Structure formats: structure tokens, C-alpha cells
Amino acid sequence: MPEKMKNVLVALEFYRGPLFEGIAEYARTHHWHLSLDMLLNPGNIPWGWDGDGILTMLIRDETALLKFLRTSRKPTVNLEGRRLTTSYPRVLSDTQKAAELAFRYFRGKGFEHFAFYGVEQSIRGRDFALVTQENGYSCSFLYEGAVSWREELAATRRWLKTQPKPLAVLCWSDYAGARFVDMAHSLGWHIPDDVAVLGMDNEELVCDCAAVRLSSIRTDIQRVGYLGANLLDRIMNGQKTKDDNPLIPPHEIVERSSTDTLATDSQLVAQAVRFMKERHPAAINVADVVSACSVSRRGLEKAFLNSLGQSPYQTLLQIRMERARVMLRSGDEKIATIARQTGIPDAKHFSMLFRAENGVSPRDYRTTRKSADIRARLYTSKGDEKIAFP
Fold first, then answer.
1. Which of 57, 101, 104 is nearest to 83 (CA)?
2. pLDDT tens track for 351-366
3. Which domain holds residue 279?
4. Between 225 and which of 19, 180, 340, 378 could a Cys-Cys bridge form, CB atoms 3.0 to 4.6 Å apart?
5. What does pTM read for this prediction?
């Protein structure tokens, strides 16, 4: 007798594409039926639903959704929801790691003024503020929540006038990032020179359709969805999961137009970075940069530390690693070829540097990234054997 198909409700407070992709992948490979009544209408609580388990995302306090979950008495896993007062097991992205990544990225571009745009009491905002403060800077906040576009635009105008420029803004999601870009752009601020904007989760359709293409932190929200579904499956099967509350670290920052700038008044640093970007495919080193800029090495080091908070070598390495990530994501060149084309002729040394910078080997990075791309294409295709978005 075939095993009974599990019926799982996807009860998210708002739709997040990558999170659902991870859930859908697990459901497809484990013969689940997903109840999607709430996917396009999160406020439409399916009172009386009687399935096997629930995957949810609790953001707000005392909502109808929370009341529904408490009365349903079904096995429940909280994905990305930060309501720590509930007893539901959770699978979360590592917001502290994401905040550290965003701060290092902005400081590497010379920014000294930071802000966060998003929902009030956001854990992502809290962690970004903590990281900036730990490093001797402050973080301003602008919260969503105005009733209309006109009111939020007016609030944003007033807030931006009070902020020092150039300003680096981290947004709690790509939807928020695209909204902030649209508002700042319509108010006449130059992005990224006046205000650099960074989203989170790298939802590519959202990022590419903003008024200025939105850079974003590529979190692993898809993995959160998959592991959350796996955790729920084990709970429904009666397995112990007491210590299963993993934190999933982010992958990288995908740079687009909204942060493609260098926030520095130092002509020397700007000249050196231009030289690095133009010449990084060649096997140049810091001595070559010193020679090109007609400055002493000590003078160059001091200028970089004052402007960017890091050494010329670290900046050159970041430029090379970004180029390497792009090549690994978009092509099939051999690792040795990519190493040469990023100015690091020794493939073994390149792999060691890449792992230190990204946490995985170049080969594993390519495999993981291409698998994610394949899954994304699968979920958005139509066909009898494929799961399509509703």
C-alpha cells in the first residue's frame, strides 16, 4: 500500500520567491501536497484546514495567523519568522553574518555613514546597527509603514535631507530596496553617488526592475525553505528535533548599479582603484599600483586605510574575487583559466584565496550556484512534471 501523501499548508505572511522554491523542491521530491491558499492572499486564513503540518513565517505580533496556528494544533515550523516568544522550531538565515558582510562591503567602498530601511523591530536592522556601532560608526533608521505612497515619499524626503552624504543604506528585503530606490530616485538623489542602496535575498526580477538596478546580498533563503520542510517532515514522522534551529549564512553580495561607486574624497585612492579595476586581469601587485600612482607604498597604504578601512592588497583581492565569482556563475572555464584571467596565475593559490574569501572552493561555488539557477528555471517552467508558481 503506497504511503499516504502528506498535506502541508504554506502559511507565509507575505510571498518570498526563493523561500517557496526551497519548500517546493522538498515537496516535489518527497511526494507532498502543498496547500497554497495563503500564498497569493496571506490574509486569507484557511480556518478549519485539516492537514498534516504547517510551514509558516511569523513576523508580526498577535496576528490572526498566530491565532490560527495555535488553534490548529498541527506540527509547525517557523521559517525566517523572528517571533522568539513562540515555541515553534525555527530555521533562520544568519542575519548577523549578513550584517557583517554588508558593513565590510560598504566600508570597502569608503562609506562612513550608514542607515537601514525596513520594518520596525527588524532583526536584520538590529544586527546591522550593532555591527556598525561595534566598528565605531552609527546607523540611522527609516521605517516602512506609511498609509500611502505619497505619505511615505514625503517622510523619505524629510529623512534624506537630514542624513549626511554619501550614505550607505541596507534594506531589509529586495522589495524594500526597490521601493527605496524608486523614492530616492524620484526625489532627485543620485544613486549610488549620493545614496548607495543594498537589498537582501537577491530576488533577481525585483533587483533588475528597480529604477536603478539593485545590488543585493544573496542569502540562502532557498535552503532555509528546504531545510524547514525537512525539519517539519521529521516532526510529522515523530522524530526528535530538539536542537534543530540552524542559522543559514549568506553567500555573497551581487553588485549592480545601486552600489557601483567609491565613496572617497581621496583622488589618490580613486586613481588606484581605477588602475586595479582596469588592470586586475594582469598579474599586477601593490608595487605596480604604487608605481602607477607615483606615490610611496606607505602613503598608499595610509590613504587606503583612511578612506576604505582596508589595505590596497585587500581591495585588489576583492576586485579579483568578484570577477572570479561572476566567471564561475556564468561560464564553464577551467579553474586554472579563471585564475589566470583574474590575475592569479597559480590555480592552487587562487583556490586557497577564493576559499578564504568565500568559505567554499571555486568548484563547489560553481556547482552550488548553477544548481540554484537550474532550480529557479525549473520552478518557473510549466509542465506536468514541474512545479510552477501559482
1. 57
2. 999 998 888 899 988 8
3. 267-372
4. 19
5. 0.78
